[in-house]
Design a protein that fits this description.
Five copies of one chain form a homopentamer. The first copy, chain A, is mostly helical. In chain A, about 75% of the residues lie in helices and about 0% in strands. Chains A, B, C, D, E: It comes from Chitinophaga sancti.
Chain lengths: ~300, ~300, ~300, ~300, ~300
């Protein structure tokens, strides 16, 4: 996630530098031809023509920004739900699972489940970013479990299955009652839903036809622009067209970056930071004040 | 679903080639008449007139794109929910259904239900695409069940009924407790909801009056265009009108393609691919590492 | 619901024929006066004035189309939910209600409840359309029940009460356990919600002030138009103004028709067709392959 | 709620009569000055300047109309939910609460709760309109209860507490089972949610900065208008500016009226009418065919 | 939250005074140069150019206003849900927790939980505003509990854990049944969700790239404006450009203020006021008519 401060100029404009260079070159060529061969009457266009195109393109860019923002915000909302559900899960595990007979075993079960929940958050984040979903899990769960989940294509799903097996054990030993088991199982369903929602956002390409079309229409609009302004500005058309083109191209680029919130980019959902907050909170509920390592810090974004 | 890469030019523009040919022809005729009979004063229109039309049409196209996108995204979301619920269903079946007395029978019941869930996903996808809903199910469920469901108009609904009957059996034999049965039954309700949502999107035509009207207004706008630009461009009006018409027609076509996500087209929801992922995940939870056959691969889309 | 095909031209344009006639007459009068008295300088308006009005009216029409579409789509979604919940209800009734002692009585109860659910769907549809809510129910439920519900102002609500009484009986006779009863009762609550949502859409008028205002502003805009184009087109202004007016008036009419989806019009939610599908599915689950009568078929819509 | 018919002209335009008078006066003064001192060259503005303002104001008014409509529709939806939940509550009370031993006492409890639910609806409506929340409750609940709830700042909340106490009594006497009590208690939570949603809409002012700003920008736009059209129309500018100003001012006023749906105005949510419908339905379920008094009838709206 | 009345002029325009001063200065310089060197032909721009920019910027500002409003409204909705759930929680605690044997101890437990709920609301509000989350809690909960929660990074989360522990105690002593415990625990989950939603809104920066870009494009648009109007107005361009710039800059500023509803500003969600209302209502349910201290009153907003 980009922070509020310190976003470098080059980050924003770096994304469109080649496009802008091309637009400037193109406008230069047209001005040159116009100037040399005195073609005023022939290649001049009334500004109303690019304006009609400008209206429909503005609406399409607004449409696209909206959908991109919705994807980004849904991704953030899903990770917010993961935070909430992880805390509720921990609270339920801590207060529901009890054993008068084997208090220490129950204690171990509770701790195992809560640490596994921390692992689940990291694992999901890494899987969504296309990294190894088991890396670093040994820090939180037993090696035996790491080995078990490693053989699954979908590691977080396997971790949820281990949760469910532990719950069944607790029920069979009477450390939890039947309603409480179903209640915690409902929380597992919520994790499953959150995971699936992230995968859906990750795997569903924004309709490529729209992307392509908006791109074509935008380029056509920019190609018309110099003909519309050349009469008034002469050489001044070059910076003017450049600036207007930059305005429109930037909106398109931003929508493109925002629409894929799990792609290991600065505009990503800050999954590592969120997972770390979850770990800190869950550890405190376990009376463990170990603060997890700070993830690498960048000057203008967090991951 | 269209992929990000390799979308052929002909796929995008192929959809409007006849319309564009007509527009070019029409503009040519007008330029010809204009040129021959020197009708400048009579058939020239101030560009503001098509511009007023252009504004309202742009807004209607934005409205239509929005609704089409919403249908498409809802379809995708429903199939995402099917993924999540299939995993939760499997996790619950695996951990809830147990029998100390008849462990092998319970094992068989669990496997039967999970394999039937895989079948449900394929069956729903085929039914939505208008193909045979029972084709290929023998691979996953017993012939007896295939025969039973085949007599239903709605095969996936019949499969859910078989799920429910198995659950009732498990409850009667005490392999599951009463809360757990209701909990899994709630998941069956979610499958029923997802199926119904897909049917609703499939069976509900986007309001035809809007489709028709937008189509008429768009054609009227395109027919006005040549009169507006002919004064400035002469023969140059032909490519200009062609390009502007293409821009507007493409948005309309894309909305039309996006709004029906279950029609066996490249822009479809990739139901076969999703069903295959579900099969892979569910098999792994059953300790079965068989990877289902890859569906046919296309260069720029998946089904 | 309008189908995709065969929508007659007269259906679409029939709705605005009087308005268009008036607009054409009005424009004719203005052109005549203009022509006769040579008032060019006096009654000519720069096109930018209607354009400012055109922008705000376009936005208001987009706003109105959006809200009308949302009402229409919500109505359709509610009836989709009725389909899903009817199937879930039937599945639960069939698998939950059992009696080892009185299997035949339980069988009769199950069938009675499921047939009553079919009746509920038809009854709700007829009540929403302002027709008799008890007509034709004898086909599905006992005369005694028809007589009972007939004295209620809200017949479908009374049918749900009969469902609930049967459930209580099943619980008292131990044909169903306590969790299952609450689970089916939750489904009854969903029917109650769906019914109430339909009534809300039916009974809530789209804010009349907006309707009125949009109507006034649109008429004002159309009255300005001839003054804006008369200078350029002379007698040609008549078809031009007619066509532009038709474009705007049609959007308004369509929103008006779409916003009331339970008014016994071709743009309605196809409740009869949906109820018929539910009857077919529920009967098949009862092993009854009777296919309900096809409702009257129209060439371009279903009811 | 405004009805579809009979909305008097004065209701719609009465709201902006002072504003319009001012605009007309202002335009008159400008035309006068312009005419007298022949200031054509100095105070004439190209129409494009008000048009740029017109675009941004149109979008802001569309934004505001949208939010106002959403508040109004949410208010209506909440009251729709109150209808549905009141019916579900009544159905559950009638079928869940039973006593073989004390059938008459149970009967009295059922009736008391259902009548209290009617009272709750009236009470909430009156509280939201800023009227006495206990007025007229004696008609439906015992005096003792009226006295009890009267000491609460939030009367409907106190009525829900009484519901909950009765449920606890029913549970303790075994007239209801534990799952049923929790199920009805969930319905009470829904009433609590609905009540809170109404309070939120009532108490949350639409962001005043937006209101203010839109108001300022709109006035600035109207003040620019005469300068833009004076050149073309002379004295004709007065009615033209007046009509355009009326168009924009009306949209603003309508949004303002719609955004506060609990303010004892004709555009209100028709809470009294809804509460009356609930009373009629609930009484019929109690076998009581008393039809509650019709609330005062107005010619073009219901309260 | 800003109130409807008394918003001082300086509050609204104070936010853009430096920007406006700069715009005025800039326009002055351009008019001066234009006037001195008679550069009319060179630096004059057709107004259509800023108009194309104006359209896209208007749409982006509408997009941004929408998202900012949605964040603000979601924040308010979450706090509305906290009100509703606090009341439901209290009702459930009061009616569910009972002990025939130890009525006084149960009474104490009920009061302790309800007072802790009041504390939770204040604590969450302070934490979101970046203030001390434990300040003033001694007024409502025992010192022992204050000390316990103070060691947590997330104090409200710790308070919920204490709630859950009390519930478990009530279950173990049989003062509550198993379904009731799960029901209240579900309410705790809702508190956890509400808390997490607030944190999400607080911690998620509105996409900085959009903020930056809209800011750049807006400034570019304002810099173009004087060149467009200078020809018509001369020195009159200064107030005109100033007023148009103010219109656009104000919309941007308002969106910026609205989008962060937990930042200790007058546009905040009025969390202190809401928490106070909750305290009053919950105390009344405890038969305690103590009215909490009024928070500091401001002339045009509440906190």
């Amino acid at each position: 996630m980009l922070l509020k401060k310190n976003i470098p100029f080059r980050y924003v404009f770096g994304k469109i530098k080649y496009e802008i260079a091309l637009v400037v070159l193109y406008t230069l060529v047209i001005v040159l031809i116009h100037d040399r061969f005195n073609l005023k009457a022939t290649i001049n266009i009334p500004l109303t023509v690019p304006m009609i195109m400008g209206t429909v393109i503005s609406l399409l860019l607004a449409f696209r920004s909206n959908q991109a923002y919705d994807r980004w915000w849904e991704a953030r909302t899903v990770w917010g739900a993961i935070v909430n559900d992880s805390r509720s899960f921990t609270r339920e595990v801590l207060t529901f699972i009890n054993s008068a007979e084997f208090p220490e075993e129950a204690e171990r079960l509770r701790e195992r489940m809560i640490r596994r929940q921390m692992a689940w958050c990291y694992s999901l984040g890494q899987q969504l970013r296309g990294l190894s979903a088991t890396e670093g899990l040994e820090r939180l769960i037993p090696k035996r479990e790491v080995a078990y989940v490693a053989r699954f294509a979908n590691v977080p799903m396997a971790l949820l299955e281990l949760h469910a097996k532990d719950l069944q054990i607790a029920l069979q030993r009477d450390w939890i009652n039947a309603y409480q088991q179903v209640q915690i199982d409902s929380t597992l369903n919520k994790f499953s839903d959150s995971m699936g929602k992230c995968e859906r956002i990750k795997n569903t390409v924004f309709p490529s036809t729209y992307s392509l079309y908006i791109h074509f229409a935008l380029n056509f609009f920019i190609m018309l622009l110099p003909f519309g302004v050349i009469e008034f500005f002469g050489w001044g058309a070059v910076p003017l067209v450049g600036a207007i083109a930059a305005s429109f191209l930037l909106i398109e680029k931003m929508a493109i970056h925002l629409q894929d919130p799990f792609d290991n980019k600065p505009t990503d959902t800050p999954m590592t930071t969120i997972a770390r907050t979850i770990e800190r909170d869950l550890r405190q509920m376990l009376n463990d004040n170990y603060v997890p390592e700070t993830p690498p810090v960048y000057s203008y974004y967090v991951m």
